[in-house]
Write a structure and sequence with these properties.
There is one protein chain. By secondary structure, the protein is an alpha+beta fold. Helices cover 29% and strands 26% of the residues. The protein has 11 helices and 17 strands. Strands 9, 10, 11, 12, 13, 14, 15, 16 and 17 form a 9-stranded antiparallel β-sheet that branches. Strands 5-8-6-7 form a 4-stranded antiparallel β-sheet, with helices on both faces. Strand 13 and strand 14 form a beta hairpin. It is globular. The protein starts with a helix and ends in a 6-residue tail after the last helix.
Length: 369
């Protein structure tokens, strides 16, 4: 998706891929296959490049610091560490006065149990590094489960210490996403706030703008995300994942410093996609408009299901809805695996959701969609 955004700008993208058949390698001609955890591979990869950016947060922090001696690393290690390390992120957000769940760093199962006894069960336990899409996260119902997060706990391959972070369980009514983009010169744009829906730790739907979120609250969340990006020195996309509790308070759940799945709707639904604005920011070009093209945009993710011939299924999808936009990722269809997404736009949220889910469900093999 970043390659697609780069083409009309005349920008050459070079990719370091973990394998020759991954989605990006299928569309980026200048692809090198290698291990992002190996410093020598990284040093050879950035030779002659103007800037380095990422589609995940797992490159070791020490490697990023070394690469910054040779190329503009955006976001830099000093910012990216707060997306890599949940313990450091929670501490920094607390310093900034940003609302977060109550938390503690736990060295032992006894510490985790004590946290639950103090703040109430259930609680959430997370590894400080390495978790994503629900991995490295546990919901613990009582003290008898406190040992589970510590089983097999070890340093990362780069020797980075992994901690267990305990957090209060937030009984949330919904999840929200605030996406902003910041350039090195300090220009920032904010996309409309999206409501997101998760299933088994995977985002399955976004609705933009978030329904029933008043303008003042939406502006407050955008301003908060801009402040976080500015205080941390983020360059590129910052996605602030939020939880809205049933009592109305909104707290920060996670940070991501890269184009984010909750912003994929922007490819077809915004004046400038998050991918194009990320590239513009990395190269310090003026940022484009994040405004919506239509009053409502819904993205439904396509997970692997009974339909294996996704391209063949487009016959039905497009015959039914010529305005539906489909993005397939070139991945082998496996149960529950994210293999694409559908974006629909319009004026009525219920109608737009119905259209998006009809297409997504058909692509997942539901013949009654």
């Amino acid at each position: 998706m970043m390659q697609q955004a780069a083409i009309p700008l005349g920008i050459d993208v070079r990719l370091l891929a973990e394998g020759p058949d991954v989605s990006a390698a299928q569309v980026v001609p200048l692809t090198t296959v290698g291990d992002y955890r190996d410093l020598d591979t990284l040093l050879a990869f950035v030779d002659g490049a103007d800037a380095l950016t990422f589609d995940h947060e797992h490159v070791p922090t020490a490697h990023l610091e070394r690469l910054a001696e040779l190329v503009a690393v955006r976001p830099g290690a000093e910012a990216l560490v707060f997306a890599q390390d949940k313990a450091r992120m929670r501490a920094r957000m607390t310093e900034l006065g940003v609302a977060c769940p109550r938390y503690a760093i736990c060295d032992t199962p006894a510490d985790l149990a004590a946290f639950g006894d103090e703040f109430g069960w259930p609680i959430i336990a997370k590894t400080s590094r390495g978790g994503y899409d629900g991995k490295g996260v546990w919901k613990l119902d009582d003290a008898t489960q406190a040992g589970e997060p510590f089983e097999g706990l070890a340093e990362t391959s780069a020797g980075e210490k992994v901690l267990i972070v305990a957090e209060e369980f937030i009984d949330f009514s919904r999840e929200l996403s605030a996406i902003v983009v910041r350039s090195p010169s300090g220009q920032v744009v904010a996309y409309p706030i999206s409501e997101t829906r998760q299933a088994d730790g995977i985002c399955v739907e976004t609705i933009t703008p978030a329904p029933a979120l008043d303008d003042d609250e939406a502006s407050r969340l955008q301003e908060m995300a801009i402040r976080i990006a500015t205080e941390l020195g983020v360059v590129g996309v910052l996605a602030v994942e939020l939880m809205q509790a049933r009592d109305g308070r909104i707290v920060v759940n996670e940070l991501a410093m890269r184009p984010h799945n909750t912003g994929h709707w922007s490819i077809d639904g915004a004046r400038t996609s998050q991918f194009e604005n990320h590239i513009r920011a990395v190269l310090d070009l003026p940022l484009g408009s994040p405004e919506l093209r239509d009053p409502v945009v819904v993205m439904a993710n396509v997970l692997g299901g009974a339909e294996e011939d996704l391209t063949g299924a487009l016959q039905h999808v497009f015959a039914r809805d010529r305005a539906a936009r489909v993005h397939l990722y070139g991945k082998e269809v496996k149960a529950g695996r994210k293999v694409g997404h559908v974006t629909c736009a319009g004026t009525d949220v219920d109608d737009v959701r119905r259209r998006a889910w009809h297409a997504a469900n058909y692509l997942m093999g539901d013949p009654n969609a």
